[in-house]
Design a protein that fits this description.
By secondary structure, the chain is mainly beta. The protein has helices at 20-34, 41-65, 225-232, 324-327, 362-371, and strands at 2-4, 70-78, 81-88, 95-100, 103-109, 127-135, 138-145, 151-156, 164-171, 174-182, 185-193, 198-206, 212-223, 236-239, 253-255, 258-261, 268-272, 278-282, 299-302, 306-309, 312-313, 333-338, 344-349, 376-379, 388-390, 393-394, 406-414, 423-427. It has five helices and 28 strands. The chain is elongated and about 105 Å long. The two termini are 52 Å apart.
């Protein structure tokens, strides 16, 4: 984003430049003028050059003595706004503000560049550093923020004990939402500035009907979500349930009636039947005799805890004996929401990246899915496992700096044999 002052132009500041005689004295001028009495064309040329250099250097010295200066900076919190103030010795006529990620660049045209490189940090902690240095035609001030945020810049004249000022109002509490279509699916990207820090959200909405079908997919031991998706020809995918270091699923995993993972602590699970209908419940009981029977679900993905039930927040982390690293605090998260009309919401929240995204609590994830239209919702494995794949690309920023290999994924395929995805209450 850019904020511009008036169009850049030449500007002179302060009083008129002193005369040559004032700058160098009468004797100096007389000595220079005597050069013109020297005979010979070569000496006359040299004399003219010397006189030109004196005129130019005198003008430059006079201009440098009158350039406006950056006196310092101040900052304070004012509700949702962090106000950064640059104190100036004279009004800034031409300026420009450029924002790129967490960095702000402020160009002050025609300003003196002899200023301390590192300016004292303003209070309140949102600004991490302020550095100044020369730029083409003036001074450049670089401001490093705690996280990226929209900014509005304006000038203020002197008042009481305050000098001329350039003010930057930085909105640290805000929300940006962008919607786009990728491979026919709606993608929602949300970026929030919060009192605790920034939060980045990425969601893909799967419409009801026969155009798409969902199913859990087993990894080849341990495999990234993008690898699982590409190997199986999936259009989209998110990481699935929990697992141990060997790649063994920790919870129920049933694929086309075959047990790939076994129940754990009677936790929450996602069910998908042969028609593609989706429902939520607790993990099925392990059959004691036959591994495959008429009562065996077609697809089941054990995860948890439950987040939303019948349009109300209902977090079952304690009932399902989840440890505090999952149940408490902010972390990268993956969740699935199901709307009343059968729309499926696959959402991933980035976390453990202070300048980019701090993650969400389970309560915040439940609220997010409710706001995205979910009537029922379930938490999946999160942390470094959280990944959202769509049409050949990982949409989020995994906290490990790269995708973490996982044991399972929930994949989205183009086409569905029959039926539609609709909420069907609880199983188990």
């Amino acid at each position: 984003m850019k904020h511009k002052g008036t169009r850049l132009r030449s500007a002179s500041y302060g009083a008129a430049s002193p005369s040559i005689s004032e700058s160098y004295g009468a004797a100096g001028v007389k000595a220079i003028m005597n050069l013109f009495n020297v005979k010979g064309s070569l000496l006359k040329v040299i004399s003219l050059l010397l006189l030109s250099l004196v005129l130019i250097s005198g003008t430059v010295l006079a201009d440098e003595a009158t350039l406006p200066r950056l006196l310092g900076c101040r900052g304070r919190l004012n509700g949702d706004i962090y106000r950064l103030v640059l104190d100036l010795s004279a009004p800034v006529k031409d300026y420009k503000v450029e924002a790129s990620g967490r960095n702000l660049k402020i160009y002050l045209s025609g300003f003196d560049t002899t200023v301390a490189a590192d300016l004292p940090l303003p209070e309140a902690g949102f600004v991490r550093s302020v550095k100044a240095g020369p730029a083409a035609g003036g001074l450049e001030v670089n401001v490093d923020l705690a996280y990226r945020a929209p900014v509005k810049a304006y000038r203020l004249p002197p008042a009481a004990a305050y000098p001329d000022r350039l003010v930057l109002d930085i909105r640290r509490i805000y929300e940006e939402r962008q919607e786009r279509t990728v491979a026919g699916l709606k993608v929602v990207d949300i970026y929030r500035g919060t009192a605790a820090g920034p939060v980045a959200v990425h969601a893909v909405l799967i419409p009801p009907g026969k155009a798409y079908r969902l199913q859990p997919v087993r990894a080849q031991k341990l495999e990234t979500v993008s690898s699982i998706a590409r190997r199986n020809g999936a259009l989209a995918a998110v990481n699935g349930g929990y697992f141990d270091r060997s790649g063994r699923p920790l919870g129920a995993l049933i694929i086309e009636g075959r047990w790939e993972g076994y129940p754990l602590l009677n936790r929450s699970a996602l069910y998908i039947d042969k028609t593609g209908a989706i429902s939520f419940g607790t993990e099925p009981a392990l059959p004691s005799i036959e591994p495959l029977s008429d009562s065996t679900p077609w697809y089941c993905l054990g995860a948890g805890p439950r987040l939303v039930e019948q349009g109300q927040m209902k977090i079952t982390a304690r009932e399902e004996a989840f440890r505090d690293d999952i149940a408490v605090g902010r972390a990268p998260r993956t969740g699935l929401g199901l709307a009343a009309d059968g729309t499926v919401v696959l959402a991933v929240v980035d976390g453990r990246q202070p300048g980019i995204s701090i993650g969400m609590t389970l309560e915040e994830l439940a609220t997010l899915l409710l706001n995205l239209g979910a009537r029922d919702a379930l938490n999946f494995d999160g942390g470094g496992s959280s990944a959202l794949y769509l049409d050949g690309t990982i949409l989020n920023s995994p906290s490990d700096g790269r995708e973490r290999p996982v044991a399972s994924a929930l994949a989205v395929f183009a086409g569905q044999s029959e039926g539609v995805s609709v909420a069907q209450g609880n199983n188990g």
